[in-house]
Amino acid sequence: MSQERPEGASSPAAPATLSADGADTVGATVATVATLLREPGLPPMEARILLAHVLGWSRTQLITRDREPLAPATVAAYQALRARRIAGEPIAYLTGTREFFGLTLAVSPSVLIPRPETELLVELALARLEGCTAPRVLDLGTGSGAIALAIAHSRPDAQLTALDRSPQALAVATANAQSLGLASRVRFLESDWYGALAADVAPFDMIVSNPPYIVAGDEHLSQGDLRFEPADALTDHADGLAALRVIVAGAASRLKPGSWLLCEHGYHQATDVRALCSAAGFLDVFSERDLAGIERTTGGRRA
Description:
2 domains; EC 2.1.1.297; 7-stranded mixed sheet; nucleic acid binding; elongated; S-adenosyl-L-methionine; methyltransferase; single chain; peptide chain release factor N(5)-glutamine methyltransferase activity; alpha/beta
């Protein structure tokens, strides 16, 4: 049973203690998960992602340990990332990781951040590889390796060749392959599209690509996350179809008869890419819509 203090009497001072990580726990000035997540300026989900990254905690731990005092160094590290995010820097670059097709991939400003809509390309590829034993797949413009690694992970019998002209991107992709235990089945080559492939290389069972397809000067290049991503991975510095023309034109000679070419492209480019595929002699040319209803991926089958 509690006893009331006489009116006007002061409360005893809270004892000063230190947490295991050295944080001062006196009074209400202590920084905790709860107090940091209440700060305005970021959407709650983004704040939780950044704080979990700094602490090395799971989302569940953020909930169950939300009143634990945090060390000043931890708070400072979080506030630094928070300021960068408020300035527009992508979450994926701040944490150094991105989830794609169930895989955790390392990313850096040297590579395009994998998008959920690109998972459609992987799904279409896997569906068309059904019934193909030990398929050999070529990924053009691999970036972080997302598409190649997702296919390799889903098809343990597949062998992938992944090309990119950026050595920095290839370093990221190679590290991802190693961390996922896929390095023995994915070969990375520095190449400007087909350039590094030997003339006598055996034809592939499939070619996939998510090339740069944003038109030069498009206003989106100066907005949002795109401001921080490598320009060469976003735009062909031309009409948005330059890379796709090269890919489609060179695909048939590097595919087995009856094999598929699948390419991601911009929201307004499906008609043009279908025309490119048809003009190159591909059969069963189609475009598939993403979850937003946008024709996002186009493909065709070599005669």
